[in-house]
Specification:
CATH architecture: Sandwich
Strand order of the largest sheet: 7-6-9
Structural class: mainly beta
Largest sheet: 3 strands, antiparallel
Mean pLDDT: 77
Number of helices: 0
Pfam families: MAM
Distance between the termini: 23 Å
CATH class: Mainly Beta
Low-confidence stretches: none
InterPro entries: ConA-like_dom_sf (IPR013320), MAM_dom (IPR000998), MAM_domain-containing (IPR051560)
Radius of gyration: 16 Å
CATH topology: Jelly Rolls
Number of strands: 9
Strand content: 35-45%
Shape: globular
Protein name: MAM domain-containing protein
Helix content: under 10%
Number of domains: 1
Order of helices and strands: EEEEEEEEE
């Protein structure tokens, strides 16, 4: 459900909201150049609030000083167990100002390549969108 109350009953459920840090999923060393943790009060241009309308809530944003044409975030390694092979990731995203593509890739530890599993392209959408991806894997992987 949208309020995440159903996930609270799951033993492996973790919530990440960037309020206190970069979450367990994102190691500071994996925060590649171009990404900054900010909130809507920083006055850096849209968005001026998070997906719930809170202007003091934190989210990750691409820096306007970015020199390269792309920036990457890489999660810590997900470790499926004998009982649990499915991971569901729900995220909110905003595309504004510049045209571009937001992509989510999956790299299994047995493979050298990253497989694109989701993407959205657009320009000046200027609204928060939500998406959920489900990954079913019996081996270690990163997103």
């Amino acid at each position: 459900c949208g309020g995440s109350s159903d996930e609270k009953q799951c033993p492996f459920h973790e919530k990440c909201d960037f309020e206190t840090d970069l979450c367990k999923a994102l190691n500071k060393l994996n925060l590649q150049p171009g990404w900054i943790r900010r909130n809507g009060r920083h006055g850096m241009g849209p968005p001026y609030f998070d997906h719930s309308g809170n202007d003091s809530a934190h989210f990750l944003s691409l820096s306007s000083e970015m020199r390269s044409s792309y920036a990457t975030l890489r999660t810590n390694v997900f470790l499926p167990t004998d009982e649990e092979h499915i991971c569901q990731i729900t995220f909110h995203y905003w595309i504004s100002q510049k045209s571009g593509t937001l992509m989510i890739g999956l790299q299994k530890h047995s493979e050298d390549t990253i497989t694109n599993i989701w993407q959205d392209s657009g320009e000046l959408q200027n609204q928060w969108k939500t998406n959920t991806i489900t990954i079913n894997s019996t081996e270690k992987y990163e997103v």
